[in-house]
Write a structure and sequence with these properties.
About 5% of the residues lie in helices and about 60% in strands. It has about 170 residues and is mostly beta strands.
Length: about 170
């Protein structure tokens, strides 16, 4: 079977074939054999070249979120439009000011308050998703205009959790 999809808004085409309990994944240049087993509804075990990996995943509408070895990936079918992305691959200006969770999860901590000055790359909040804590960092230097959530709230990747603004 052949698949086309986007990983972090980059197009990929792979073929997948199954031989007994082994899956063979090829992108034309590379070929990987993997033993894939479900551990729980949102967790897989991968065995590749003798190394074992746990993959946590979640689904939010058409997007799928994967966490592997501390790295997170967003996967969607290539026919779907990448939301709010400019032609050059960057975020729209509106997205620079609206902070969203990288994937569905639970807000563990809000590290800032409204009207607080913030610096670029400052941790704004921590969201737990797929058994991993994700630090949400500021993309700008400015201040916190509005906070939409509290610790303990469940969030998805569509709705903003914090709105930022530039200093005037």
């Amino acid at each position: 079977m052949e698949f086309e999809f986007l990983i972090d808004n980059k197009a990929h085409r792979v073929t997948l074939e199954k031989k007994e309990n082994i899956f063979i994944v090829s992108d034309g240049e590379n070929r990987i054999e993997a033993d894939i087993r479900y551990i729980s509804p949102n967790t897989l075990s991968l065995l590749i070249k003798g190394c074992s990996y746990k993959v946590y995943f979640a689904r939010d509408k058409e997007k799928r979120y994967f966490s592997l070895d501390g790295e997170q990936f967003v996967v969607q079918e290539s026919g779907e439009d990448a939301e709010d992305v400019r032609e050059d691959g960057g975020e729209s200006q509106e997205d620079e000011f609206l902070v969203r969770a990288p994937m569905p999860g639970k807000v563990i901590k809000i590290n800032v308050s409204e009207k607080e000055d913030i610096r670029k790359n400052q941790t704004l909040a921590i969201v737990e998703a797929m058994k991993m804590e994700n630090e949400i960092k500021s993309t700008i230097e400015g201040y916190v205009k509005k906070i939409f959530v509290s610790a303990g709230d469940l969030v998805d990747s569509e709705n903003p959790i914090i709105e930022l603004a530039l200093k005037k």
